Amino acid sequence: MQALKALFLCVVLFAPLMAQSSPIRLKDLVEFDGVRSNDLVGYGLVVGLNGTGDGLRNSPFTEEILSNILERLGVNVTGEQFRPRNVAAVLVTASLPPFARAGSPLDVTVSAIGDASSLLGGTLIMTPLNAADGDIYAVAQGTIIAGGASAQGDAATVVQGVPTAGVIPSGAIIEREVAFDFRGMTSLRLALRTPDFTTAGRIEQAINGNFGRPVAVMLDAGTVELNIAATRMPSPAHALGRIENILVEPERRARVVVDQRSGTIVMGEDVRISRVAVSQGNLTLRIEETPLVAQPNPFASGETVIVPRTNAEIVEEPGIGLAEIREGTSLSEVVAGLNALGVAPRDMIDILKSIKASGALHAEFIVR
Fold this sequence. Notes:
Oligomer: single chain
Mean pLDDT: 79
Order of helices and strands: HEEEHEEEEEEEHEEHHEEEEEEEEEHHEE
Number of domains: 3
Structural class: alpha+beta
Shape: flat
Distance between the termini: 34 Å
Helix content: 10-25%
């Protein structure tokens, strides 16, 4: 009963203020159809490493690409035995932004795929970057900025961060543009990042209210279609430039997300709990083996015998007594009360899972 009183007292004293949802720009709620990035990938070689490259005996693909590069430069290494430790095979990745033009720079990420221990100080040799269609859209080259450090001695090795991966700011140049006739589009679909019928309806109303006539229509919970011709704008770009800063208040679903590994609990303000009683405690089982060795007396016949000795006990640690939660109580109030009672995050997650299993937690419950 004391735990029940303390819980309600903590609910009153520590209940957080519920902030009202603020309007969000349309560009932060939707993705515009056709306005998207494209992933690029390439296979290249990093040189100039300080003895931290691939072991060519364990990474034959590094030796193969090194031979191909040298032969393209006019150096014949066929049949030669070379085992440099300052080269490493890498995969190079980049993202081609929408409406990117030839000659524009791109940031690239370089990651070792062999047994290289570090890419610090390395230089990426000219590497073509291909898209999903197999065509080359950019070429990367430059000095790598690795995101870690490593030090090694005779008996110990210290590694901080990830020295086998790095970036090259503006390390690629776009050589080919993506063919896309954006100006010729007569209609444009807006895809909601979080599909919701209420939010989609509010977007439709906000766009139509901005133009003063019906130019947008909600197709489903995740799509709103914009009629470019009805907007009477010179081009689709002008129409998007006009609507992307319209403020819309999104409708969020009641959702609770917990991470069991870190004990993190994230919840929305609309989460509610029905009337339910909660009781929680911890049981600890301890088993200790202390075998006893019995030996015969000196010069006496007999064998050494191990006599088992087991000490088993169950300890119940203090927890939460039977506490009743009011009808319509918000989850944030319950969590604030549990925090004030000193409940550990992992125990709190178990309590929330049990409340959800009982049907009293009215929200989507996500466990990671």
